[in-house]
Amino acid sequence: MSSQRGNVVRTRPQKHKNKKVFDNLRFDTNHRSKMIAELDVVQVCETCNNIIEWKIKYKKYKPLSQPKTCTKCSDKTIVNAYHTVCLPCATSLGICCKCAKEKKVVKEAPPDERTQLKEKSELEAEVRRLPVRRRKAFWRFMDNANGIGPKVDITDLDTDEALASYEQRMKREQESCLPHNDYMKLAYRKLEQLKRHTKLRMTLADDFDDLSLGDDDDDEDDDDEDDDESGSDDEGR
User: Fold this and answer.
1) HSE on the CB side for 123, CA within 13 Å?
2) Which residue from 17, 151, 194, 195 lies 20 to 30 Å from 7 (Cα-Cα)?
3) Residues 22-69: pLDDT tens digits?
4) Residue 69 in 3-state DSSP?
5) How far is residue 79's CA from residue 63's CA, in Å, rounded to a whole number?
6) In sequence order, what E strands does 72-194 have?
């Protein structure tokens, strides 16, 4: 049988198979391995994302020892391994950080902390313009979407079991928090929906007011007609 690549079609299954799925932190629990396993891959296309995720999953990922030069701005601003374009350039140009091609990115890079605070303050200002009932509905919806449960008074956690369960719940909530970009998109979508509902209710209220005013005018006209009829009857008598 020829060993030329692409000239062999094997029909039998794999002979040796692992009984358990490979776990890159099963026997290696140092800080560096844990940091690599929890690495967030952003601003890359689907193909490049699969490549980097595979390297992270099977312990083939090699982080950079020093910043690398960006191919667009020629500055040493690349801090992620396997990237050829820095995050600011890739975000502004709309390209993948690894292959530098104009492809749809799987996960957008979150803005810096200052920009996040500014966007959240603008969102809160928009929410404050809603009625109180709509405002409460908005924050309740966002808390549920962000995995945040009802608030608990710490003084009520008098036993060790209750305190441990509360700490586990808080840890799960922190892990289930939405990324900033997804959070803002969902928030503005819900905000627009509540604005439409508020505007519709105001329009319906105005229509009802117009109808009630029209009924009052009709009643006044009827009263005037009754007065005229009674006056003519008195004159006839």
Assistant:
1) 21
2) 17
3) 888 888 878 888 889 888 899 999 999 999 999 999 999 999 999 999
4) strand
5) 9
6) 76-78
d(CA 155, CA 158): 7
Contacts of 56 (CB under 8 A, 6+ apart): 24, 36, 37, 39, 41
Instruction: List beta partners, residue 68.
Output: 78
Cβ-based neighbour number of residue 123 at 10 Å: 17
Is the separation of the CB atoms in 49 and 106 below 8 Å? Answer: yes
* Distance in angstroms (rounded) separating the CA atoms of residues 216 and 125: 40
Helix (H, G, I), strand (E, B) or coil at 80: coil
Of 235, 169, 154, the residue nearest 227 (C-alpha): 235
Among residues 172, 65, 181, 202, the alpha carbon closest in space to that of 115 is found at 181
Q: Whole-prediction pTM value?
A: 0.54
- Cβ distance 190 to 127 under 8 Å? no
pLDDT tens-digit profile of 178-209?
Answer: 777 788 888 888 889 888 888 877 776 665 56
Measured between alpha carbons, how far is 81 from 97 in angstroms, rounded to an integer?
Answer: 10
Nearest alpha-carbon partner for 73 in 90, 89, 51, 52: 89
Q: Which long-range contacts (CB under 8 A, 24 or more apart) does 59-66 make?
A: 59/24, 59/28, 59/33, 61/36, 63/32, 63/36
- Rounded distance between C-alpha atoms, residue 124 and residue 207, angstroms: 31
